[in-house]
## 1
Amino acid sequence: STGSFGLRIQRQSINTKQSLLSCIHKVRESHEPFKRSSDAKFKALIIHGINDGMLGQWFRVLAHCDTLQQTAYEPWSYMTKHGFSDAIKIVDRLSNIKFDLPTDVALRVFHVPEDTETPIY
């Protein structure tokens, strides 16, 4: 099947960039039908990255994307000047820890448990 950004999603080994784009697609598909904010989608993406042990690798991909740096960051920004390297080193330490954080916090208000008729907040 084809996901966001024309990425072919298959059941084989994928690289870091494909992993990031696949996760963006997953978050968009789960959050946009409920009109969740960009902030909620960003938080879900970060949590997926932590749970999958990929956050540091994803940051590395973003830090080395010249187009992103030119369009989203000022020349004096930390990301442009330092490539986010200190933050990546800190986040890399998380990849050795097993996380299972909920990625659907912004969507829980829309899920109705089977034994009740009203959403749980």
## 2
Amino acid sequence: SDVYKRQYQRRVHGDALGVIVSQSGNDVALVCNKMPQIRCSYCHNKFTAEMTRKHNNSNVIALGAQNTGLEVAKQMVATFLETSFASKEEGGDRHAQRIEKFMSQEKQSA
């Protein structure tokens, strides 16, 4: 729990991206997503790491140490850090509207 709080404090103090790891990756993704302004995705390959940044503008990636090989994990993290949110020409408006929708739901339930 303290690890999640430190990750959260770093995130809300800027536009930093985060990487969090547990045995499966699922548990940390669930916990991170309970924190305001965090959009954490559990990823299992390079494609999912790219798409979560490009289409969901996720700011934290969750990895599973027991189900992700080291080389795949390195590729995922590099891809996640290097990928930007989709531009307007790439359909970013559509994705931004969807993100705003679920962020407003987060605010309502807080």
